[in-house]
Description:
Elements: H1 19-24, H2 45-51, H3 56-60, H4 63-77, E1 82-83, H5 90-94, E2 99-102, E3 106-109, H6 131-144, E4 149-154, H7 156-165, H8 173-181, H9 183-207, E5 211-215, H10 224-230, H11 232-242, E6 249-252, H12 260-265, E7 270-272, H13 279-286, E8 291-296, H14 305-318, E9 325-329, H15 339-353
Parallel strand pairs: 1-4, 4-5, 5-6, 6-7, 7-8, 8-9
Antiparallel strand pairs: 2-3
Helix pairs in contact: 4-6, 6-9, 7-9, 8-9, 9-11, 14-15
Bound molecules: coproporphyrinogen III.
Amino acid sequence: MSANDRPTGPQPTAAYDSAFLKACRREPVPHTPVWFMRQAGRSLPEYRKVREGIPMLESCMRPELVTEITLQPVRRHNVDAAIFFSDIVVPLKAIGIDLDIKPGVGPVVENPVRTRADLARLRDLTPDDVPYITEAIRLLTAELGETPLIGFAGAPFTLASYLVEGGPSRTYENAKAIMYGDPQLWADLLDRLAEITAAFLKVQIEAGASAIQLFDSWVGALAPADYRRSVMPASSKVFEAVRPYGVPRIHFGVGTGELLGLMGEAGADVVGVDWRVPLDEAARRVGPGKALQGNLDPTVLFASTEAVEAKTREVLDSAAGLEGHVFNLGHGVMPSTDPDALTRLVEHVHTRTAR
Ligand code: CP3
């Protein structure tokens, strides 16, 4: 591809030829790129140190701190991409939803969103609501140079699960009660969240993020027919809204084996796969024209180095025929993971896949 064929838009050219962005575009790579969901965070002692005494949401609003935390795993592990340090509920906080992130629990919403009147609280997000995001990404892209920065947001269903339940849930009974019982309210809620999510991703891309990931972590709770009818339109709307920028769009969820085909259809360029479906089978389900991201079970990192390498080989063998592969865990790094095991894993994947 010549320089003239490159997608236009505000994407940073410094990272354009990185292994990560090439794999997302299904181009040949010098080695399989690696990054980890939740690579910035509690597994790192240097993270725990700089976060001391600063509440999670407040730390997301301090650009210098966000920059430092985002860079920590890049320095330590030699990963092929940085993921912006923030949280999926940051845009909701920014438009005035009364929520907090409780340590060891997760996002908690004081007044859950459950009625049509509640929708009025979900106003549009503008760049002026999140100046600290723009500033942090400008600082970061200057520091990162050729290392790509992944921006991210929560997908409408996963955001709705917190907003409607009022906190983490295993069953999503309040959210599903609306989805099944008042489909029009549900559709309007997800559409509102799609608008907010798209606006939040645009801020990150405009500021310099060179790829984005939409986290639909909890969507595996749905049957395919319900996903297609009640969730896919909103997620597709988000992907469509950011398509003109030409940056790779990654779509991730957990327990999504039965949904992979529909997630492929929803519009992303890269589909994230958890550890329950081998990547070759995932590729058959997702269909052609997509790169895949994944999918080592995060708990494998608690086993011996030999076991980690054996399980990694299984993932790489399974990925051998893919159009594009970004190595990752099947879900986020667990806080008690030994950071050295992550460093060794990056090195191992790079060495084994060097072409
Ligand atoms: O390194 C990275 O991946 C970037 C940072 C990141 C965070 N949250 C920081 C964080 C990302 C990408 C997220 C996304 C996120 N947040 C998701 C989707 C990813 C997934 O794991 O499926 C979800 C579901 C949330 C909601 C959320 N926020 C949860 C479940 C928690 C954990 C609660 C806990 O304490 O166990 C949070 C808080 C949170 N977000 C932490 C971090 C580092 C922990 C808070 C802390 O360090 O004090």
